[in-house]
């Protein structure tokens, strides 16, 4: 259900990457239970924007409020936030299984009233059940015993999404989560996001290059090219004029590729 509570408020955000002005004076809000896509050409500042919004890189100007708090005071609320970065770089010989990785996303909740050992045992069972459910939801359960270093690109995306889903979240931030996932897989992922949004009230912010999927599945679109070019419902934000303004004249070839 969509209601009018802003989960995230970004005002006047400006970010430099080294000496390069990557994001300039960006403002937007995310309403609870909505799925917003950030689109724009390569180098437009999309990844920089989401990293700065999550306070993972410094900003030179701007205010960010998340769940009603300044981002710097997020601390214990971080578990309400799932983030899947564009690239996940790791040593492929690192001996950790898919289940173990997904389990790392599960955090202890402070439950009172039981003894230490009861809590420990209960939480272990809860964690195992949550890992199984998350892997089933992303169609990666069959990979659970595999070492993460042996996964294909698309399989790894499924497992990383399971890592994000293993806890209930309020905000899920995905940076090209579906790049490299096959067509059926991407459609399944969008169906899953829809379920999380409608049935569990999650809010989604996703960077995507798939204009076709975005126009079919997202509630709002933010067109970015260093700064916000336009924002609104997909049918408005992705009009030919707005796409031209965002991507420049080369876009028609890209769009053709998707039709
Ligand atoms: N660590 C860095 N140091 C210097 N410049 C950087 C760094 N990271 C990004 N940039 C530059 O900042 C600009 C924005 O990069 P960013 O990765 O945010 O773009 P993007 O819209 O996510 O691109 P893509 O669609 O290719 O993933 C680019 O010009 C890039 O070269």
Automatic annotation (TrEMBL):
In terms of domain of life, where is this protein from?
Bacteria
Q: Which CDD domains match?
A: ABC_Metallic_Cations
Task: Give the record's family classification.
Answer: Belongs to the ABC transporter superfamily.
Q: What are the UniProt keywords, alphabetically? A: ATP-binding, Nucleotide-binding, Transport
- Give GO MF terms, alphabetically: ATP binding; ATP hydrolysis activity
**Where's the ABC transporter domain?**
8-251
Name the Pfam families for this protein. Answer: ABC_tran
Q: Does the keyword ATP-binding apply?
A: yes
The name under which this protein is listed is ABC transporter ATP-binding protein
Task: Read off the SMART domains from this record.
Answer: AAA
